[in-house]
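fyi for ur records
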Amino acid sequence: MKKYILIKILFVALTIGGLTSCKEQFLDTPPLGSLTAPNFFNTDSELMAGTSALYNKVWFGSNGQSLLSFGDGRAGNMISPYNGNWQQFYQFTVSNTNGDLRDSWNSFFTIIAQSNVLIYNVNTYAKSAVTPEAKRRAIGEARYMRAVAYSYLVQNWGPVPIITDNLKQGADTTLTRNTIETVWEFAIRDMQAAKNLLPATSTAGSGRLNAYSAKGMLSRFYLTRAGLGSTNGQRSQAYLDSAKFYAADVIKNSAFQLMPKYSDLFLTANNNNPEQLFGLQWVGNGGYGSGNQFQSQFAANSQITGFQDGWGGSNGASYDYLVNLDPADSVRRKATFMLPGDLYPELIKAKGGWKEPIPADDAYETFAHFKKYVVGGPDDNGGLGQQQAAPNNSYMQRLADVYLIYAEAILGNNTSTSDPEALKYYNAIRKRATLPEVTSFTIDDMLQERRYEFAVEGDAWYNLVRLYYYNPQKVIDLIAKQIRGTYTIRIKPGTGTLQKKREFNFINRTTNTFKLVSTAFYLPIPDTETAQAPNLLKPPVPYKF
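which gave:
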């Protein structure tokens, strides 16, 4: 636990000393980054600026490569055959020394520590000119972030320690883990509080959280929590009803709206669009740690990024993702992964766009390269962006997710549903993808829909966690069938002409399948943590509320 305990000790010192070195810590918000706590929270606007780093820097370690290896790698959407760290995730052999494992653990506990300290600072240092509404909003943002961090921790590691006071708990190496049920209860209570503290609306285009952002996340929490502890393959109807209630409230009463065009969701020009309930707010010209590192790792080459990064040429969609894709689902596929001959006018605009090369006829191994969150260089983004620091947001929740939560909550424990309300919102997602409407759907259909709507957004594994809670064997069987090896891509003869749309053959090269066993479902705690706090290896205990 050495690394994050040191971080939390530092937070304690900064809190007592008045955040005297804020510029070097996670609350740096230029140009206010050098302000200390006693004079930082003089006005509502300063307080709002002080909370803005909760939307970027604290998430840096869990964004980029960790986002994909955790969310899409384990679920079978991507492969990275030449990166040992990432391979461990989709082969279910993650070591407690894995660098991405450690980075994400530290990132989530940094979010929690920062949220705790922010709550303390608002209550301690905010001046009389700061309005009660601004204080409520800041604390609501902190509790929202803390809840989301715990939701990721509990889904990835299972039992984890609940920390609410870094002054008292930050350096405590005797901490034990709390049970999965009570971690979820803590996250739900935090999000309920955030719902009541946050304002009903946000300034358009600001990307700031509001009460409906919290309600949308609550609907996700309740839907996932519904299956936990099931002994008969059935989900709790009370939790399903809560998921449905909050999803319906967001859909019918909030200002959030679906973007009309799917591919437009991932343009930097559309940051903080009406579909985004919560997105990470990366700063393209703010230096390392403030910008989005995703495309530096996953763009196919430096021509696309405009810098010396773009190290993703040997990464891409998994064979399983490609062969299970409905060929009619081309709108979402093209916005997510590149196939030979695809043209992207928004990349390298000055040269007429980027056209994905067509591999030679004898190419043994090729990849469907990443497109989602690959936005190009500064010339493509209004002058914004640096190496390893793109300016595009990362989605943490979109309205499309709430639509499908609502539909799944109505489906509930039924084998299938043709409920008109469920179909209305399920089909709205398909309609945007230019897919035909359906007259009923099952949980398998829902998993398929989610897989291709949210691929490369780090979402897919958490859909499987939701299912695993009440039907673990189904998840084990699903993963056992997935082929996660290398492949090559061929354009089908006679296609790709003026007369016929381009079609593809995917040729499997290495038939790799991997078993998920129950002991590998949750990730190991990093070795640096257990070395300093061995009690983390003891059986978890319920949290005392």
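Residues 397-518 form a domain with the Serine Threonine Protein Phosphatase 5, Tetratricopeptide repeat fold (CATH 1.25.40). thats all i got for now
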